[in-house]
Amino acid sequence: MLPSELLRRGRFDELFFVDLPSEEERREIIDLYANKYLKMKLSDNTMEEVVKVTDGFTGADIESSIRDIAYRLIANEELQLTDELLLTSLKNVVPLSQTSPKK
User: Fold this and answer.
1) Tens of pLDDT along 31-63?
2) What's the rounded Cα separation, in Å, for the pair 94 and 81?
3) Does residue 99 form part of some domain?
4) What residue intervals traverse the membrane (predicted)?
5) How many domains does the chain have?
6) Most C-beta atoms within 10 A of its C-beta, which of 34, 52, 74, 84?
7) Would you say 30 and 62 are in contact if contact means Cβ atoms under 8 Å apart?
């Protein structure tokens, strides 16, 4: 929640609620960032698993999680990008919607 001082008239004229992405929106976000950061096109089966695992994730959660996987791959040249690595990494993420549900 924003402090009441920031919600005074004239500070913000409009307040917007942005919901978590739907399955289809998560699919598009995952596809975008898997391609951007991992240069990877997920198979249909893997995509469906990743979409399920990312339930409750914001778009930013998905981006930062995939970017973190890319950083790990760069830092450890012996690490191989596999579907298992992707899924395991995402399963270990606690999304913002669970750590700060009121925000």
Assistant:
1) 999 999 999 999 999 999 999 999 999 999 999
2) 21
3) no
4) none
5) 1
6) 34
7) yes
User: CB-based contacts of 52: which residues, under 8 Å, 6+ apart?
Assistant: none
**Residues 6 or more apart from 102 whose CB is under 8 A from it?**
1
CA distance 40 to 48: 15
The model's pLDDT over 3-15, given as tens digits with 9 standing for 90+, comes to 777 777 777 667 6
What is the CATH classification number for the domain harbouring 67? 1.10.8
Domain of 68? 23-93
- Give the length of the chain: 103
Cα dihedral sign, 87-99-59-18: positive
The answer as to whether 98 is a domain residue is no
Q: pLDDT at position 57, please? A: 96
Burial of 62 (0-12, 13-18, 19+ CB in 10 A): buried
| Paired tokens of 68 | 């973190």
